[in-house]
Write a structure and sequence with these properties.
By secondary structure, the chain is of the alpha/beta class. It folds into two domains: 128 residues, Aspartate Aminotransferase, domain 1, CATH 3.90.1150.10; 232 residues, Aspartate Aminotransferase, domain 2 (3-Layer(aba) Sandwich). It contains 15 helices and 13 strands. The strands form three sheets. It has a seven-stranded mixed beta sheet with strand order 3-9-8-7-6-4-5, sandwiched between helices. Strands 1-2-11 form a three-stranded mixed beta sheet. This is Aminotransferase class I/II-fold pyridoxal phosphate-dependent enzyme. InterPro entries: Aminotrans_II_pyridoxalP_BS (IPR001917), Aminotransferase_I/II_large (IPR004839), AON_synthase_class-II (IPR050087), PyrdxlP-dep_Trfase (IPR015424), PyrdxlP-dep_Trfase_major (IPR015421), PyrdxlP-dep_Trfase_small (IPR015422). One of its GO terms (molecular function) is pyridoxal phosphate binding.
């Protein structure tokens, strides 16, 4: 048997490699593979739809971010195919040197107009958009005031800038005010319009007031708000009336737009400055033609038919009502993410497994993505889900809570 400090060829492992393989998270993943319990990297064998082929089975899919169902819309697929035929499979480099297609500029113009702002900047991923914005805006002496449930892309961008990160309580603008008032350092505040795990929304109007009082720039990540919140689907910035007031809005194309990529939206002068300063934009390959064309087609569909957002909201309302009727208490929100608190990590993973056994795919959220003892079952609603599917998943969740003897008030029976 190969000793832990050697690789399969018998060469001694460098200390950094030993540390990599000894990380507790790696051990956890190995254990999950052995017992078949950790539900990550599930093999998907068809397009992401309400019924998706996974690991050799047709599964009722409530774990996808394809909120508007546009990832497999024929019009979006056709746009991607046509772009590949015209522009090729890839751009072979960064936009700075050899990958700036008119297609990229067309998408930026469409995004700018959609949000009614004067500038937009497209990135290869939504992660890259946040990473680039944070690392370009902030310096070593700056403060980054960040919600305690903020996405990793923002945290990593702050780390890259070597800025001083300050955390405030989740969706708590008063906590931000208490900490930031009187602080003379320059900085910014970052919140998400719709939070990716719990699905709740930020009170953006109050956060804007606090930022004005403390002279902080306001950045709103609408990754899960685009296409799901607001009459036209602009996100929580639209619902709370701050589209023109937020200093920057970041989005991703991988949810409602059914593609891959991301963007920063804001005022033209700031966007043009970012265009020549942002390293994650300058030194990585540009989006593929197919992904840009798909995002552009989806954006046009959303712009021309905002009724898609209303249809999604009706499905969300239906699922929430069905869960409540069965005695469950989803976390309050009207966004596309419907989360129910389970409790202990073990119970959360057990609940996921029981749903999977019944042919239903959901997302289990455990520590450290949420505080210990507050594991969630996360259900993502698609506009294309049928009413019977909603009732089926609500029945299954109620049965799982009963089988595991979990509290229907949204807490598990065991504390982590």
């Amino acid at each position: 048997m190969t000793r832990p400090e050697q690789d399969s060829a018998g060469r001694p492992r460098a200390p950094v490699i030993q540390r990599l393989l000894g990380d507790p998270r790696v051990a956890q993943a190995r254990l999950g593979k052995r017992i078949g319990r950790l539900p990550y990297f599930t093999r998907v064998e068809s397009a992401t739809a309400p019924i998706t082929r996974m690991e050799g089975r047709d599964i009722l899919n409530f774990g996808s971010n394809n909120y508007l169902g546009l990832a497999n819309d024929p019009r979006v697929i056709a746009a991607a195919q046509e772009a590949s035929a015209r522009w090729g499979a890839g751009v072979t480099g960064s936009r700075l040197l050899n990958g700036n297609l008119t297609l990229h500029e067309e998408l930026e113009e469409a995004l700018r107009r959609f949000y009614g702002r004067t500038g937009a900047m497209v990135f290869s991923t939504g992660y890259g958009a946040n990473l680039g914005l944070m690392s370009s805006l902030l310096g070593r002496d700056d403060r980054a005031w960040v919600d305690e449930e903020m996405h990793a892309s923002v945290l990593d961008g702050v780390w890259l800038a070597r800025a001083n990160m300050k955390r405030f309580g989740h969706n708590d603008p008063e906590h931000l005010l208490a900490q930031a008032k009187g602080d003379t350092a320059s900085g910014l505040c970052v919140v998400e319009g719709v939070y990716s795990m719990r699905g709740d929304r930020a009170p953006l109007r109050r956060f804007l007031e606090v930022c004005r009082e403390t002279r902080l720039a306001l950045v709103v990540d609408e990754a899960h708000g685009l296409g799901t919140v607001g009459a036209r689907g602009l996100g929580t910035v639209e619902e709370d009336g701050v589209v023109q007031d937020a200093d920057f809005i970041t989005i991703t194309f991988s949810k409602s737009l059914g593609s891959c990529g991301g963007a920063i939206i804001g005022d033209k002068a700031q966007i043009e400055a970012l265009r020549v300063l942002t390293r994650p934009f300058l030194f990585t390959a540009a989006n593929t033609p197919a992904s840009v064309a798909a995002a552009l087609a989806s954006l046009r569909i959303l712009h021309e038919d905002p009724g898609l957002v209303a249809q999604l909201k009706e499905r969300v309302r239906s699922l929430r009502e069905a869960l409540v009727e069965r005695g469950l208490r989803p976390i309050p929100s009207d966004g596309p993410i419907v989360s129910v608190e389970v409790g202990a990590d073990f119970d959360t993973l057990q609940a996921w497994r029981l749903l999977w056994n019944r042919g239903i795919y959901a997302n289990p959220v455990i520590h450290p993505a949420v505080p210990a003892g507050h594991g969630l079952l996360r259900l993502s609603v698609m506009r294309t889900h049928e009413e019977q599917m909603v009732r089926t998943v609500a029945d299954a969740c109620a049965d799982v809570f009963s089988d595991l003897q979990l509290s229907h008030q949204g807490r598990g029976k065991v504390a982590s």
